[in-house]
Design brief:
CATH superfamily of the largest domain: Malonyl-Coenzyme A Acyl Carrier Protein, domain 2
Organism: candidate division WOR-3 bacterium 4484_18
CATH architecture of the largest domain: 3-Layer(aba) Sandwich
Structural class: alpha/beta
Strand content: 5-15%
EC number: 2.3.1.39
Largest sheet: 4 strands, antiparallel
GO cellular component, one term: cytosol
Radius of gyration: 18 Å
Helix content: 40-55%
GO molecular function: [acyl-carrier-protein] S-malonyltransferase activity
Catalytic activity: holo-[ACP] + malonyl-CoA = malonyl-[ACP] + CoA
Number of domains: 2
Strand order of the largest sheet: 4-5-3-6
Distance between the termini: 15 Å
Order of helices and strands: EHHHHHEHHEHEEHEHHHEH
C-alpha cells in the first residue's frame, strides 16, 4: 500500500512550483485561486523571490501548501491507479493532507495557513525563541537532557523526526544552554535552525488558542482517505479527532516517528513525498516499523 506525505516549513525555495505552472495548464486554476486570495504578487514571490520575503512564515506556509496540492492534483490526473491508502504531513504539511483527503477545501486551507503563519511570527516576536536539531543520538538521550534543563526555563522536544534526529524548541537562552549541554555529552552535531520562533512549544500557546477559535468556525468533512495527525501519531477517519489534533498542533510536538510506525503497522510499504524538495522520505527510511 502507498502513503502520500507532505513537507512542512523549511522546504520552500525561490522558483518553487514555477515549472508546474509553466508546463501544466490544467492546474493553473489553483495558482489563480492563490493569487486571488493572497494578492497578485504572491506567485511572483514564489517564482522570483526575494528569498528573505518568501521565508516569512505568512508567505512560506501558503506557498508550500500550494506547491503540494498542485503536485498531488497532477499525480491524480496523470498517474494511472494513483490511490494512496493514507495521507499525512509534517507540521504545516498536515494541511495539505487535509485538503487532498477532502476534510477542508483548498481555499479554506490557504486562508488558514496564511493566518497560522502570521500568528506564529507574532508569537515569535512577543516570546522570542528558537529551535535546534539534535542528530546522532537517540530520542531518549535528548528527552533526558531536556527534562534536566526544564527547571531553568521553557524548553521541550518539538519534533520526533527519526530515532536519531530530534528537534528541540524553547526560549533563546535555553536553546543555547541545551546546545552546550549536548556538546558536553559528546553529541557531535547540534544544528540551530533558522526559524522565527519556538514552534511546537508552550511559547506558541497564545497563538494556538487564537488559531483554535478560527478552526472552530471551519466545517470539517469526514476524510476520504485516512490521516495520521501529528499531535496523536494515530490513524483516524474521524473529522472531530482531526480538528481536535489540529487545534493542539501548533504547541504540541510533531510525532513523526510514531506516525511513520503507525503507517507501517497499517500496511504501508511505499511512500511518495509530494511538494517542494524531498526531506521526509529520508527521515522515513531511517524509521523502523
Amino acid at each position: 500500500m502507498l502513503a502520500a506525505v507532505f513537507p512542512g516549513q523549511g522546504s520552500q525555495y525561490v522558483g518553487m512550483a514555477r515549472s508546474l505552472y509553466d508546463e501544466f495548464t490544467e492546474v493553473r486554476p489553483l495558482f489563480e485561486q492563490a493569487a486571488e486570495i493572497l494578492g497578485d504578487d504572491f506567485l511572483k514571490l514564489m517564482f522570483e523571490g526575494p528569498e528573505g520575503l518568501l521565508k516569512e512564515s505568512k508567505n512560506t506556509q501558503p506557498a508550500i501548501l500550494l506547491h503540494s496540492v498542485v503536485g498531488y492534483e497532477l499525480l491524480k490526473r496523470r498517474v494511472t491507479d494513483f490511490s494512496p491508502a493514507i495521507v499525512m504531513g509534517h507540521s504545516l504539511g498536515e494541511y495539505s493532507a487535509l485538503v487532498v483527503a477532502g476534510v477542508i477545501d483548498f481555499v479554506t486551507a490557504l486562508k488558514l495557513v496564511r493566518r497560522r503563519g502570521e500568528l506564529m511570527s507574532a508569537a515569535g516576536d512577543k516570546h522570542p525563541g528558537g529551535m535546534a536539531a539534535v542528530l546522532g543520538v537517540t530520542t531518549d538521550v535528548v528527552e533526558s537532557k531536556i527534562r534536566e534543563l526544564q527547571k531553568y526555563g521553557t524548553i521541550v522536544v518539538a519534533n520526533y523526526n527519526s530515532p536519531m534526529q530530534t528537534v528541540i524548541s524553547g526560549e533563546v537562552g535555553m536553546i543555547d544552554r541545551a546546545i552546550e549541554g549536548f556538546k558536553k555529552l559528546g553529541v557531535k552535531k547540534v544544528v540551530k535552525l533558522k526559524v522565527s520562533g519556538a514552534f511546537h512549544s508552550p511559547l506558541m500557546e497564545e497563538a494556538s488558542e487564537e488559531f483554535a477559535k478560527l478552526l472552530d468556525e471551519v466545517e470539517f468533512n469526514t476524510p476520504k482517505i485516512p490521516i495520521i495527525p501529528n499531535a496523536t501519531g494515530k490513524l483516524t477517519r474521524d473529522k472531530e479527532e482531526l480538528k481536535s489534533a489540529l487545534k493542539r498542533q501548533m504547541r504540541s510536538p510533531v510525532l513523526w516517528t510514531q506516525s511513520v510506525r503507525e503507517a507501517k503497522r497499517f500496511g504501508i510499504r511505499r511512500v511518495i513525498e509530494v511538494g517542494p524538495k524531498k526531506v521526509l522520505c529520508g527521515l522515513i527510511n531511517k524509521i523502523d516499523a
